[in-house]
């Protein structure tokens, strides 16, 4: 009889990977619901509304076509690439070659991690914003490279390029940025992108913008494309996702656009890892882009998100917090109360108010003093959360943080 394996010997890379934030939260939610708790879940940016009926109908129509039941092309559907080129031309004034500068992906998160595999070797450095969406760090570690944190601090939550040591900048191969920003809700203008592109050119870096919240902004000019910047096409990519604004989180569809040579490296990884994207999903994505170009297509959702953010901001201001109203995204980045860090505040909200939020530590060391509220849930859920927090704050005498305490 074969000897039973006593311990699974995982790679050293996995020793540097903490449990994934949202997987942990899913377990917490599951356990509480199993015990009969009526939770107010404000943790994950999963849109509450179903996908647009016309997008679903496109999927339905294409799913019954026999020609779509085969392995799809690795380059992605020509119609989808064409629609993405049209989208960038109309929304950002950016001209893209749909044959060479657009690559559909089975999810932008997956593409971000695969890009790290394509571009990073052991010993390389990737510049990672902190706090940030966890996958930038995950991809870097899984590639065997070293993440170097770029602190994002209030009020602007932007990296200080001048503070990056020259030796680090020299060794760095890739820099991730994400504006409009998750988790802080911060935005940037074209002047910032010009500064970022100049820094990348000076140090021969590849620059990436995860543009997941391009459509979730509350006034014009809050979400310029990195690719609108002169010189960006020499060394830059931008990731596009259908998950948030199009309510297609479970569909797993995104795209990378920009420098053709970088895209070829990513495409090579994709051909080895994936077998393409089911054509009906790509046809549905093309329909989403067609619908999204209609005037005011995102206006109702964005008005809802803005209203929910205003409800939360008003609540915290009434309790003494100094918070700015976000101009984009579906997030409110809230410093923990006096005497607590973000983990303790998240636990307090869970145990005393039945509210699930994301502890800021899951986004990096700079997030330790914060929690993230997400407003993709119903306005009624936000109102219930405000009522529950009002009761628990009164009961336990909660006080606002001291100035700069969240840092």
Mind explaining what this structure looks like?
- Helix content is 40%, strand content 13%.
- It is globular, with a radius of gyration of 22 Å.
- Helix 3 (53-63) runs antiparallel to helix 10 and helix 4 (78-92) packs parallel to helix 10 (279-292).
- The chain has 407 residues and is α/β, with parallel strands linked by helices.
- It has helices at 12-15, 21-34, 53-63, 78-92, 108-119, 135-142, 166-171, 190-202, 260-273, 279-292, 299-318, 342-353, 379-396; strands at 40-41, 102-105, 125-130, 146-151, 172-177, 206-210, 236-241, 254-258, 331-335, 355-356, 358-359, 370-374.
- It contains 13 helices and twelve strands.
- The protein has two domains: 12-50 and 299-396, Alpha-Beta Complex (Aspartate Aminotransferase, domain 1), CATH 3.90.1150; 57-292, Type I PLP-dependent aspartate aminotransferase-like (Major domain) (Aspartate Aminotransferase, domain 2, 3-Layer(aba) Sandwich), CATH 3.40.640.
- Strand 3 (125-130), helix 6 and strand 4 (146-151) form a beta-alpha-beta unit.
- The protein has a seven-stranded mixed beta sheet with strand order 2-8-7-6-5-3-4, sandwiched between helices. A three-stranded antiparallel beta sheet has the order 9-12-11. Strands 1-10 form a two-stranded parallel sheet.
- The N and C termini lie far apart (57 Å).
């Amino acid at each position: 009889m074969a000897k039973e394996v006593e311990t699974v010997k995982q790679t050293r890379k996995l020793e540097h990977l903490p449990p994934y934030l949202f997987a942990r939260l899913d377990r917490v939610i599951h356990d509480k619901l199993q015990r009969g708790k009526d939770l107010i879940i404000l943790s994950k940016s999963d849109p509450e509304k179903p996908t647009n009926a016309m997008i679903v109908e496109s999927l339905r129509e294409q799913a019954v076509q026999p020609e779509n039941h085969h392995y799809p092309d690795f380059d992605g559907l020509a119609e989808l690439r064409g629609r993405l080129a049209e989208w960038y031309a109309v929304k950002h004034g950016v001209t893209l070659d749909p044959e060479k500068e657009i690559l559909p992906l089975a999810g932008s998160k997956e593409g971000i991690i695969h890009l790290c595999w394509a571009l990073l070797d052991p010993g390389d450095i990737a510049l990672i914003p902190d706090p940030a969406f966890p996958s930038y760090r995950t991809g870097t570690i899984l590639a065997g490279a070293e993440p170097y944190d770029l602190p994002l601090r209030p009020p602007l939550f932007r990296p200080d390029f001048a503070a990056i040591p020259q030796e680090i900048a020299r060794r760095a191969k890739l820099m991730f940025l994400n504006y409009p920003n998750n988790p802080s809700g911060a935005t940037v203008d074209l002047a910032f992108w010009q500064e970022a592109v100049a820094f990348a050119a000076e140090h021969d870096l590849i620059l990436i913008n995860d543009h997941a919240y391009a459509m979730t902004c509350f006034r014009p000019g809050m979400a310029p494309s990195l690719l609108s910047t002169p010189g960006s096409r020499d060394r830059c990519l931008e990731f596009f996702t259908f998950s948030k604004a199009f309510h297609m989180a479970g569909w797993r569809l995104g795209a990378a656009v920009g420098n053709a040579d970088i895209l070829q490296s990513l495409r090579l990884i994709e051909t080895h890892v994936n077998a393409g994207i089911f054509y009906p999903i790509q046809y549905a994505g093309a329909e989403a882009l067609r619908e999204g170009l209609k005037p005011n297509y995102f206006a109702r959702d964005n008005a809802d998100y803005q209203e929910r953010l205003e409800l939360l901001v008003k609540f915290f201001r009434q309790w003494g917090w100094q918070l700015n109203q976000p101009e984009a995204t579906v997030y409110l980045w809230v410093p923990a109360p006096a005497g607590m860090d973000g983990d303790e505040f998240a636990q307090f909200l869970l145990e005393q108010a039945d509210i699930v939020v994301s502890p800021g530590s899951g986004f990096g060391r700079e997030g330790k003093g914060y929690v993230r509220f997400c407003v993709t849930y119903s306005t009624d859920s936000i109102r219930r959360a405000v009522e529950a927090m009002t009761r628990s704050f009164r009961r336990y005498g909660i006080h606002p943080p001291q100035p700069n305490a969240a840092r």
